[in-house]
Amino acid sequence: MARYFYKGRTAHGNAVENIMEAASEDAVASQLINSGITPVEIAIVKEQQKPVSLKRMLGLGKPKTEELILFSKQMATLFKAGIPITRAMNGLAQTTHNEYLKEILQYCIRQLEAGKPLSVGLSKYPNVFPGVFLSVMKVGESTGHLDEAFEQLSFYLERDKMIRDKIKEATRYPTFVIIFLAAAFVALNIFVIPVFAGVFAKMSLDLPFYTQILITTSHLFVTYWPWILAAAAVVVLSVRQYISTDVGRFNLDRGKFKIPYVGDIIHKAVLARFCRSFALTQQSGVPLIQSLGMVANAVGNSFVAERVNHMRTGVERGDTITNTATATGLFTPLVLQMIAVGEETGQVDEMLTKVAEFYEEEVNYKIRFLSAQIEPALILIIAGMVLVLALGIFLPMWDLIGKLK
Description:
This protein has 405 residues and is mainly alpha-helical. It has 18 helices and three strands.
């Protein structure tokens, strides 16, 4: 539908002008005549296309999870207060500091004024609002309980953000240490070891094996650094290209679960997100098969998504959720037992919520002790690097001091 500017006169001869959204000029004229206005001029309003900023082209500026949580809570509160939806969204659009979110709200307001539901406007931005979000919105619109839908979504987003933050917390420390060690190794090979290599060459010393390794490595870094950078760039780009494929993403997501210490945490966190999403769709009244399809896209892991799609296929054939979940090999016996109880009692959503809470507590417990588990391994790596440097540099220095004496 397009927007049209019109001028006309009422039955009393008063001039009026405004903007109306309609399918065509004839539709505008028909609406004006039916409302007692004689159209004088009708012209389409050309929407001025804003230039796409570099920030938007790079995928930046997207509303953060915190902003979506705040948006959901504000909408739930405004609905409970009885404020009309267009007025509520107008107020939020004027107060938000995120330009992308403001654009989304303004677009949704235009869709609402054209008589379309809110979920239709939000569905234009699938990179911002996941499928679970839109499905719960549709259920809330069909049942007339949008306030409850927004409350459920805000709670779901809060728990999902907590899990994501826990995963980042679990991987931040080892990642930082590994990056620091790699940077220190490169700096030593480029700036420190060449100085000692020059001294040793002038003295014609018999160098130990460790020293020869360090000098050879340093020589490669200093002499062939353009080729090393080019090779590193090719490797990084190749890996990114491989990950962007379906097979690469699947293998990466499956490999995450095999990382020592961290893999089990990521596994439990993804399963917690699955249970929380599945419970939310069931509480909202989404059909079971449709729920599994939406949850598969919401877990954020292609390996788990494939297993969930297998569950959906099994349910379509008439199998139970318990049997299909057992066949995936993802869930513990305790969780499978709780799902079975939920099926028998008709309370799958409540059981899944308890499963999600169980996994979330387990993730919190494992993260609290992750540093104690990882620190010994990192200390051994650092000690090994220091030992090699000490043997490679200080042994020839001691020989040199002995000869000088």
